[in-house]
Design brief:
Structural class: alpha+beta
Radius of gyration: 24 Å
Shape: globular
Distance between the termini: 65 Å
Number of helices: 18
Largest sheet: 6 strands, mixed
Strand order of the largest sheet: 2-1-10-11-7-6
Oligomer: single chain
Amino acid sequence: MGLKTAEQYVASLRDGRVTYWDGERIDDITTHPRFRVPIAVASRDYAYDDPKAAELRSFTTEDGGRAHRIYQIPRSEADLAQRVELMYHTSIVGLVSGVYMALMSVKDAVAKVNPQYAANIEAMYRHARDNDLRAAEVITDAKGDRKRKAHEQDDPDLYLRIVKRTDEGIVVRGAKLHITAASLCHELVVMPTKGMRQDETDYAVSFSIPVNTKGVKIINRSFAPAELNEFDYPASAHHSIPEGFVIFDDVFVPWNRVFLAGEVQLASIFAQSLGLWERTGGLVEAVRMAEIFVGLAQLVTEQQGKDRDPIAQNSVAELISYAEMLRMSLDYACSHCERTPSGMIHPNVLAVNVAKYYYAANYHQMMRYVHDLGGGLVVTLPLESDFRNEESGQYLRKYLRSVPGVEAETRMRVYNLIRDLTADAYGGWQFVVALQAGGGLNAQRIMMHRTYNMAAAKAKALAAAGA
């Protein structure tokens, strides 16, 4: 019970979980080189020893204990502000553990249909909070033929489903894709991927189970190899987290861990609740990265002696506009927060969805500005080993000189970060994630239509028209 140390977190991963990577079954992920960087990233969230870090990362619970702040239910704007600040200093493993916030936000609606499910949500939230666990957001199904509904697929398992109900619990079968940090978490929190119809009751299912539950298998993939030179890969060498393809092969879930089992009217509520918090986390990361992109764009412009060039200035201005729009959107979403019936504060739903849409829809254009300013060196710059070599290095130091005061090594570091973040290992992952994390562009469009006050807008339009 209580806060774990980093060492205790690592030890907790030695629990017999079934994990594969590159064709190999890995019995102990804590000693395998592929997991060295991911585990180091996740372990930093358990660094509570420094007083400043402890204040940022933890809070006092109602019974006087201490818990990670990712589990603090915001009850005021100040609480929400603290949560957003934490997001700037938390790994993605910590961020996805906010999935219990999504569950707690729908608890009131669930209680109206099935009070026991609501009690299960509360109990699992407290179990994860009080034991300092990490949980994965498990939502996206394989889906098969997208023209067909879940129950119309040739293979009924292409959406995760209930295959058996007993007095003790349910048995589920299926797969969930794109599950960030699944192998690094303790719990898998499963939700339906979309709204379900009355003939899809077996697919309206939500629960939380330990990663090492019998029948759970995880196949991993990462954008970064196990070993990367941090000079050449300043981002990927330190931040890689595997994505999991999670299989549920007739997995038993006891009733006290079930949050939904056939109540189709709640399926879309579950799916939408996760989107809000996931998009909020994505928006926080977007704000952080956008400022870095502005800095990188200005640095390469100055290093080339083009800081007064109007075309370069225009490109940097576009990046500044992008960064500030994202920052102001996040500020607005938090300052215009909303409240659930039970008193939980959460960011403004419409604002978060508009901001996430703006971020994703314009991300690739912003990278075009960065690449245009950087030029071909973004992808052709030689490696650190060539720079450190006495013979080849002398030529790099000679021909990478530009304006006075800029060392060749500094210039290489700037270009390496641009390449890694936008055109290589991390960059390739981010190009897809910017669009797909929290749902693709259409998911945000749908939420905008659902939450925008269209009646007020139409009334004002009619009044302006004199009708």
